[in-house]
Amino acid sequence: MNIIYFLIGCSIVMALIFLAAFFWALRDGQHDDMHTPAMRILFDDDKPDETESNQS
Amino acid sequence: MVTTTSTTITSCYHCGNECGESPYRLDDKSFCCAGCQGVYQILNSSNLCNYYVYNDSPGQIRPARQQHFEYLDEPSIVVRLADFIDDDVTIITFYIPAIHCSSCIWLLEHLHKLDKAVVNSRIDFLKKEVTVTFRHDKLSLRKLVELLSSISYEPLISLQDVVKEKKNSVNRDLIKKIAVAGFCMGNVMLFSFPEYFGLSSREQEFKTLFNWLNLAFAIPVTFYCGRDFFISAYTGLKNRMFNLDSPLALIIAVLFLRTSFEVITQTGPGFTDTLSGLVFLLLMGKWVKQRTYYHLSFERDYRSYFPVAVTVIRQGTEKPVAINELHVGDRMLIRNHEIIPADSILMKGNGYIDFSFVTGEASPVEKVLGEMVYAGGRHLGDAIELEVVKPVSQSYLTRLWNNQTFAAPESRIKNFNDSIARYFSTVVFILAIGASAYWMINDDTAKAWGAFTAVLIVACPCVLALSTPFTLSAVLGIFDRNRFYLKNTDVVEQLARIDTLVFDKTGTISSPEAVNISFSGELRRDQQEMIASLSRNSLHPLSQEIVKYLGISSFSDVLDYKEITGTGISGIVNGCSVRLGKAAFAGHESDMKAEPSGVHVAINGSCIGYFSMKQEWRPGLKGVISRLKRQFNFHMISGDTHNERKALADIFPSGTSLNFMQSPQDKLEYIRELQASGSMVMMLGDGLNDAGALKQSNLGVAVTDDINNFTPGCDGILDGVSFDKLPRFIEQSRHAVRTIRRSFVVSASYNIIGIYFAVQGTMSPLTAAVLMPVSTITIIAFTSLATHVYAHKNKLK
Q: Are residues B117 and B17 in the same domain?
């Protein structure tokens, strides 16, 4: 059962890594604007070669 | 395409407005005006027509008046506005009120296609901000702003932007604490399960390990995440103010002490699970309460009303100067529709100044040479020159703002929570001391200590601390959808307590634009056309109203157009001379004086009648008053003349005091007197002249027709279109407070169950750990459900 000591250590270290990743994201400003990226992802990529505008 | 079909109404491809009978046409698309067509052309030439793909007619109509951005060429102003400048690039953040849909995001993030000098642009949609990085050697700031204006996304640049404060840090700090609390809660729960389910004798060695690990997790929870509660309780007690944070801090402390005692002496597992769960939930409640409107500001002052710079004439040359660098003796050039930023003397031209926002006077005031003009007025008409007599910071308006008497006491809102926390804590203490005293008498010291701490833990008012933010922020959300924006959750409670309503007149209960026009006399179709063609040339609000009223879409050319500020306009249309304006200007006899504010019309020298204007009240005003008159006292204070007294007396119930010609200071004093007589006053105002009254009142609400426009400092902003919902908002806030009271009863019944175990000194950590989340979930479900049921009942959705 001594393996438990090792596993507990691993689990806490893993959790701390995730916490640190969250802090990094927070400091980076990823949580400042939660709305715009959700809209941005729906835009199509630019088609640089196209000369005709593609409206229906 | 020879004739447009007149049966189907074509809407503008760019802005969606109705096109007239003869729309502008380009590439098979109709446009309502040259402005919209111009924007389309710009976008089309840069291959940016995807703008029209994501949304139908996403554009906005461009304001007709010409904007002056010369001041943006001044390096000293650029430095202050920019976020970052180096040798290559400048980064600047603009606030653009026109941002409203995904097309806006798409277009503004493709600015680099319009101008190669733009490196990058990013939008924050909720804040309506765009951050642009551009190469300043290829594109000046002024050119950038003009580019944005040309595609009808004109940034709003005000002085308050210069001192833009960063409010993100507070929020980030709270999120960090929530993350730590959540992290600890999850781990603690994991290490507590073996204890709850029981360990076999073989596994007893782990028990100590788990307990010590839990204690380790409890340390950051108590001293990092829970720190704010201790600080708040300490400052509260220091000021002899008992707030809800005091019992919460006590419970956190008791939980931590008892846990460390039990773990160190190896007498039990302690309550780490409850502790971390409690702190996590309390922080969540705080977070919910912190709901903010990014695009609104409730703390605006004169700085965001004034322009950033003004044109000054020095040695014969015009030069833009930042208004805080304006000196006494400077000569300012004020163009049509610009705001006068400092107290000054009129030196050249005819002043025709709209003070409605500053004093409440509805009609513009005429100023002659040599007359003193106070800051804050908006000039209408040809450019004028003024000499500054006082620096901006000492002008009449600014001083009014900085007046000490306006600084209302901070803690004017005492909420239900804080007042009940005192009684709650007293009862809990008596119970705790009683229980431990009982076990002391029975010589069971261990149980006495156990019972004392257990009562404190289980009778935690945490549900109370959660039900209020959750209920009130749900109400805020409902109000938000109905275009009523409150500063914070405390204001909802305040709204429920109001018993007196004070209204301002101009702009608040009367809408500044909507004017009820009628024409006395006969008008033929061709005469209508002539009048509309003439009026169209003038920027005066009355002329614009007349054009709207006549509804003519085909105009004739006007020759020899003249505008005499404050008097009238004249010109030759279709060979007839047309004069519009004051009675004397149009050549009316003195017996027509009955309508002094009317606009008289003379064609070819003969008078054919006059337009009379009546203030139009906000739609639903009568309904609001009649619905509220049983429960509330009304007062009306206006800075305007008493022309409308009779009309107002019909609307308000008899006995309402109607006060006219009130200065801003008078308004403030009036509110203070009402409060001295024990009234809870809600003030509804709109302009700078109400700023003091709004601050002094128990609840100040600014009424505005465009929430992006300037509003004075206040507790709430009400969009003019929702004015008729006012009684329902008040009703909803009262229901919210009732919901909180009921949730308190529900939570009290959970507490009684907990106390039943606690006083016996037999409460296990498992009971506490189960009871707390269960009661929390019940309460949050109950409050949000009840709030939405009430909202449905009040027809607010």
A: no
Tens of pLDDT, residue by residue over B232-243, are: 889 888 887 777
Phi then psi for residue B135, to 5 deg, are -85, 115
Query: What pLDDT is stored for residue B4 in this prediction?
Result: 42
Rounded to whole angstroms, the Cα distance separating B730 from B724 reads: 12
Domain residues for the domain of B367 are: 302-406
Contact A36 B125 (CB under 8 A): yes
Task: Classify residue B543: in a domain, yes or no.
Answer: yes
C-alpha distances (whole Å) from B145 to each of B76, B94, B134, B197, B312 are 17, 9, 12, 67, 21
Q: Do B671 and B712 lie in a common domain?
A: yes
Please list every residue in chain A whose beta carbon sits closer than 8 Å to the beta carbon of residue B52: 55
Do B573 and B641 share a structural domain? no
CATH number at residue B636: 3.40.50.1000
CA of B641 to nearest chain A CA: how many angstroms apart? 47
- How many other β-carbons are positioned within 10 Å of the β-carbon of residue B521? 12
Q: Do B523 and B447 lie in a common domain?
A: no
Examine residue B716 and state whether it is found in any structural domain, yes or no. yes
**Among B52, B186, B190, beta carbon nearest to A55:** B52
- The pLDDT value recorded for residue B415 is 67
Least trusted range by pLDDT, from B335-339, B418-422, B694-698:
B418-422
Instruction: Write out the two tokens for B780.
Output: 């949050």
Contact between B357 and B507 under an 8 Å Cβ cutoff? The reply is yes
Domain count, chain B: 6
* Mean pLDDT on B765-773: 80
Q: Which residue in A23, A36, A43 is closest to B124 by CB distance?
A: A36
Choosing from B102, B133, B157, the residue where a domain stops is: B157
- Selecting from B110, B175, B202 the residue whose C-beta is nearest the C-beta of A26 gives B175
Do residue B455 and residue B507 come from a single domain? no
Is B25 domain-assigned? yes
| Highest-pLDDT range among B161-175, B251-265, B688-702 | B251-265
The answer for A 1-56 residues in CB contact with B (under 8 A) is: 1, 4-5, 8, 11-12, 15, 18-19, 22-23, 26-27, 29, 31-33, 35-36, 39-40, 42-44, 46, 50-51, 53-55
Nearest to B770 by CA among B749, B746, B754, B748: B754
- Tell me what ipTM this predicted complex has: 0.83
For residue B191, give the chain A residue with the closest CA: A8
On the CB side of B345, CA atoms within 13 Å amount to: 10
Contact A33 B125 (CB under 8 A): yes
Residues B563 and B636 in one domain: no
Specify whether B86 is located in the same domain as B130.
Answer: yes
Distance from CA of B28 to the nearest CA of A (A): 12
Give chain B's contact residues with A (Cβ, < 8 Å).
44, 47, 49-50, 52-54, 102, 105-106, 109-110, 122-127, 168, 172, 175-176, 179-180, 183, 186-187, 190, 202-203, 206, 209, 213
* Pairing outcome for strands B365-367 and B384-388: unpaired
Are B382 and B441 within one domain? no
Q: Which stretches within B581-620 are classed as H helix?
A: 583-586
